Amino acid sequence: MATEFTGIGDPARSMDLLWRTAPASGRRPGPRSSLDVDRVVAAAVRLADAEGLPALSMRRVAADLGVGAMTLYGHVPGKGELVDLMLDSVLAELYPDETVVTGGDWRARLEAVARANWDLFLRHPWALHLATGRPPLGPHLMRKYELELRAVDGLGLSEVEMDLLVTLVNDLVQGTVGGVHEKVVAEQVSGVSEDQWWTAMAPHVDRFFDAERFPTAARVGPVAGEELQAASDPERSFAFGLARLLDGVGVLVEQRASDPSRAPAGPPAR
């Protein structure tokens, strides 16, 4: 699937729209339109949820809303700004109960962060295909960052380590949940289910696979395949990876608790 980029629109316009401080477009004679930025963004999200990012265009969104493209441009200046608005909009779905990431023990908080993001990407797979090197700093992205930092606050980590840990958890989620969508897309494109594909492949694997040349794969592959009933299981990979990641965080937290001097020094005094 093609990648779209956040942060390619006009920064001033994007920020005004994200924070809803943009001045209303000039009124034209005639009936007052019921269209607004929120309706435009909601329509774009519905389209992307149903058909993916390749289907997204200003003209298509306008058609779905029953208006002309120029009417749409009166509310959102371009696709770049629209993509920023879409991402920030769906991030509002995260953490309706903020206490799941601010209360309890740190391991439960981080697991709640990971699972909330996993569920978000299952609902909105197009968001996985957004390159966010220039993140849209809207209110819902900032709330997400704030709450996820609170989840790791008070563990004895430096500010940089807190940021890196939040990034690490989010990267694990995105790296594993993508496998769910890849399976769906593979079936849609090929018209063949995974079970059907493996059934068709089995005779060829038996024919070409050399157990003497690949002895470890010959030992592990069949056992894993029987257990997972697939070449891979993204949800199992996610759960396994998250547990191991949290185990590692536990070691770091214990190190900080037993010897706070091992924590990285803060910025030099001026």
Automatic annotation (TrEMBL):
UniProt keyword annotation of Transcription present: yes
PROSITE patterns in UniProt: HTH_TETR_2
GO molecular function annotations of the record: DNA-binding transcription factor activity; transcription cis-regulatory region binding
PANTHER family noted in UniProt: HTH-TYPE TRANSCRIPTIONAL REGULATOR RUTR, TRANSCRIPTIONAL REGULATORY PROTEIN
UniProt xrefs under InterPro entries: Homeodomain-like_sf (IPR009057), HTH-type_TetR-like_transc_reg (IPR050109), HTH_TetR (IPR001647), Repressor_TetR_C (IPR004111), Tet_transcr_reg_TetR-rel_C_sf (IPR036271)
Key words of the record: DNA-binding, Transcription, Transcription regulation
Domain HTH tetR-type stretches: 34-94
GO biological process, one term: negative regulation of DNA-templated transcription
Protein name as catalogued: Transcriptional regulator, TetR family
Keyword Methyltransferase: no
Residues that span the membrane, as ranges: none
DNA-binding region: 57-76
Species whose genome carries this gene: Geodermatophilus obscurus
Phylogenetic lineage: Bacteria, Bacillati, Actinomycetota, Actinomycetes, Geodermatophilales
